[in-house]
């Protein structure tokens, strides 16, 4: 269902500036209600670096315009060094960013039209920011809505998952690299745009260099990880995500560990607000937001805190497709988390997943080829927007290269709600191994749909020799799913999942022992509420006017060279070219990966971006490329940034650095 607009015209807004104590001026877009909910109104802030005056302007107008049309104020602020704001932006989630946010919140609360109550809403960077700023406890911040974010920047973020280096993190790092040099717009800042732009370019550094310098959990990743002390957060929290998103487990941990009024929702979506969510049904998310804001910012009794803490979508009949997956299901709710039902225990024995203890005593070796994972999609589909083919496809080709264990055909439905866990005894060939566990549903026609997975980079314990046995437990990503009768449940094990996970350079095999292996599948909680009020249809404010000039195109092609045996995966996109007034925006991007089947050290990746901003007489083009590969046992990062003004190069720089992994 498409969004319904509340008005045929976009809600009015104004461009404003916000002064900081050090003289820095931030730019923002402010929506004031034409029919205020009270004499003085609260304000909801979104805090991200993605250019409120152009790149996110259309979506912003639909979300923040909606809040204004419902009686409260809303504001989209560009961070220091982004958009038309002064200063420099060096990396994500720095202390300076949080300091600035606390100062802006105090400034907003002091405005004569404000009732002193501020909320934060955000998705991805904005969702992270909401949690991190809340942990700083600015007095005026009363509540946040954090979407598709994490409490743990190392173990459960785009950079690493379970210690495994994610290629999505490389892709995001190269994307942020490109964004750091974007110009201010002369239509908003006047002639000083060029001085601001050249200052940004001269101070650009590839964020991937900082991230690769911290391959283990340390103070770099602990900063901004609110899991370090959940009690730092003192305001109300509503955490929202989708099972198909990279960031689903954080919602469960926030519900378990926060000690403040809180609610959570995990639906059938990937990395986007639920009113635009795919692949599952969209909902009236902005209406839900207003119930939250009215309760916490206007002290109205909307009933939202009388409802169960956590609402979960129980998926069913997942139809995998790289671009257009489908999923059915229904909503349940639970009063708190953890709230898992008693687990069903399975054993991995002779390629079967059985409720009886394993009889086999022969160890099972897993040392899978590179190229397994080519049908696995991306860790966080559509995290950069668009509609690219980034979901997992039918898993049969990857299953055929994995070590798989299947149940018999199910005679009754099996409902899973919670975090599956694989307990096993294993031995490692080398000092480290990456283990991937996929939980799949096998359809009557043999289609294999990935329900959830785990990525775990395991370090051999101190005092344990290569090939020596030890015990380990691997939790999978939490999920709620109903396996239908007539189908089978499959556990697929591999030591590779290319290109989602960067491969071990050598000796990545493992051996596990079936008699000491069990797989725990938590069941439907007894406390689950099954009769729930339905969400309304998705609604929003009308978008600001824009004109599409050239539609975008996307492709994702995997290929195998029969002569060299090299596996390649190439993704390319031509971004939509469109106009906002006299400003034209467009560009293209691409990333590619290659690897030899039996040599993890052969892995290579590249990431390219071209961005264009044009006004009459003013044309800016930014071109970046990042390459990652192994060389002499080091992980090498090469990066290049070039900027053009009216087709004349005004800046060019290259970087090269090696890292231990």
List the helices and strands and how they pair.
Elements: E1 4-10, E2 14-19, E3 25-31, E4 41-48, H1 57-69, E5 73-78, H2 95-109, E6 114-123, H3 125-134, E7 141-147, E8 160-161, E9 164-165, H4 167-179, H5 186-189, H6 193-202, H7 207-212, H8 219-222, E10 236-242, H9 249-257, E11 262-267, H10 285-297, E12 310-319, E13 326-334, E14 341-349, E15 352-354, E16 364-366, H11 396-401, E17 403-406, E18 414-418, E19 421-428, E20 432-442, E21 448-459, E22 470-475, E23 479-483, E24 488-494, E25 510-512, E26 518-523, E27 539-542, E28 547-550, E29 553-560, E30 567-580, E31 583-596, E32 599-615, E33 618-631, E34 634-645, E35 648-659
Parallel strand pairs: 1-27, 4-5, 4-6, 6-7, 7-10, 10-11, 11-12, 12-23
Antiparallel strand pairs: 2-3, 3-5, 8-9, 12-13, 14-15, 14-26, 16-25, 17-24, 18-23, 19-22, 19-25, 19-26, 20-21, 20-24, 28-30, 29-30, 30-31, 31-32, 32-33, 33-34, 34-35
What does this structure look like?
- The chain has 661 residues and is of the alpha+beta class.
- The chain has three domains: 4-153 and 223-319 and 327-336, Alpha/Beta hydrolase fold, catalytic domain (Rossmann fold); 164-217 and 546-661, no CATH class; 342-523, Galactose-binding domain-like (Jelly Rolls, Sandwich).
- Helix content is 16%, strand content 41%.
- The protein contains eleven helices and 35 strands.
- Strands 2, 3, 4, 5, 6, 7, 10, 11, 12, 13, 18 and 23 form a twelve-stranded mixed β-sheet that branches. Strands 28, 29, 30, 31, 32, 33, 34 and 35 form an eight-stranded antiparallel β-sheet that branches. Strands 14, 15, 16, 19, 22, 25 and 26 form a seven-stranded antiparallel β-sheet that branches.
- The radius of gyration is 25 Å and the shape is globular.
- It starts with a strand and ends with a strand.
């Amino acid at each position: 269902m498409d969004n319904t607009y509340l008005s045929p015209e976009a809600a009015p807004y104004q461009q404003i500036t916000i002064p900081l104590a050090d003289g820095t001026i931030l730019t923002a877009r402010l929506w004031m209600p034409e029919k205020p909910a009270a004499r003085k109104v609260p304000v909801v802030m979104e805090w991200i670096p993605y250019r409120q005056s152009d790149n996110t302007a259309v979506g912003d107008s639909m979300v923040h315009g909606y809040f204004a049309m419902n009686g409260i104020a809303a504001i989209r602020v560009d961070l220091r060094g982004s958009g038309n704001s002064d200063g420099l932006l060096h990396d994500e989630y720095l202390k300076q960013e949080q300091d600035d946010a606390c100062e802006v919140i105090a400034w907003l609360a002091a405005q004569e039209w404000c009732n002193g109550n501020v909320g934060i809403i955000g998705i991805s960077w904005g969702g992270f920011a909401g949690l991190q700023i809340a942990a700083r406890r600015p007095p005026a911040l009363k509540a946040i809505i954090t979407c598709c974010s994490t409490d743990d920047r190392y173990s459960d973020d785009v950079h690493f998952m379970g210690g495994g280096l994610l290629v999505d993190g490389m892709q995001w790092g190269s994307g942020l690299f490109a964004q750091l040099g974007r110009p201010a717009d002369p239509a908003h800042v006047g002639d000083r745009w060029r001085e601001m732009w050249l200052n940004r370019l001269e101070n650009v550094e590839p964020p991937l260099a900082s991230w690769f310098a911290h391959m283990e959990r340390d103070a770099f990743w602990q900063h901004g990880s609110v899991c370090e002390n959940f009690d730092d957060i003192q305001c109300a929290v509503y955490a929202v995500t989708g099972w198909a998103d990279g960031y689903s487990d954080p919602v469960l941990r926030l519900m378990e560990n926060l000690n403040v009024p809180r609610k959570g929702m995990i639906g059938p979506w990937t990395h986007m607000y639920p009113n635009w969510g795919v692949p599952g049904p969209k909902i009236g998310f902005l209406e839900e937001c207003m119930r939250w804001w009215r309760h916490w910012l206007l002290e109205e009794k909307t009933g939202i805190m009388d409802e169960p803490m956590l609402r979960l979508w129980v998926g069913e009949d997942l139809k995998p497709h790289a671009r257009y997956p489908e999923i059915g299901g229904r909503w349940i709710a639970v009063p708190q988390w953890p709230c898992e039902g008693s687990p069903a225990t399975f054993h991995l024995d002779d390629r079967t997943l059985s409720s009886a203890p394993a009889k086999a005593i022969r160890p099972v070796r897993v040392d899978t080829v590179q190229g397994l994972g080519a049908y696995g999609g991306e860790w966080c589909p559509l995290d950069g927007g668009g509609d690219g083919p980034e979901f997992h496809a039918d898993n049969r080709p990857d299953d055929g290269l994995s070590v798989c264990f299947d149940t018999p055909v199910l005679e009754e439905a099996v409902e899973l709600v919670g975090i599956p866990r694989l307990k096993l005894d294993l031995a490692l060939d080398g000092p480290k191994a990456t283990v991937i566990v996929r939980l799949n549903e096998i359809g009557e026609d043999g289609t294999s749909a990935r329900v959830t997975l785990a990525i775990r980079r395991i370090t051999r314990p101190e005092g344990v020799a290569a090939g020596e046995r030890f015990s380990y437990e691997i939790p999978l990503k939490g999920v709620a799913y109903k396996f239908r009768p007539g189908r089978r449940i499959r556990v697929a094990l591999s030591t590779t999942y290319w290109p989602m996970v960067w491969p071990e350079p050598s000796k990545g095999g493992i051996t596990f022992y079936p008699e000491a292996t069990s797989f725990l599948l938590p069941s439907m909680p007894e406390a689950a509420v099954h009769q729930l009020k339905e969400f309304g249809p998705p609604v929003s404010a009308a978008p600001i006017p824009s004109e599409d000039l050239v539609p975008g195109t996307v492709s994702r092609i995997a290929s195998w060279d029969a002569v060299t045996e090299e596996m390649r995966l190439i993704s390319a996109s031509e971004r939509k070219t469109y106009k906002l007034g006299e400003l034209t925006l467009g560009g293209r991007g691409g990333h590619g990966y290659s690897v030899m089947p039996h040599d993890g050290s052969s892995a290579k990746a590249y990431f390219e971006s071209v961005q264009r901003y044009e006004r009459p007489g003013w044309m800016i083009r930014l071109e970046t490329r990042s390459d990652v590969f192994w060389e002499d046992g080091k992980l090498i990062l090469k990066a290049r940034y070039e900027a053009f003004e009216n087709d004349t190069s005004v800046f060019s720089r290259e970087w090269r650095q090696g890292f231990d992994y």
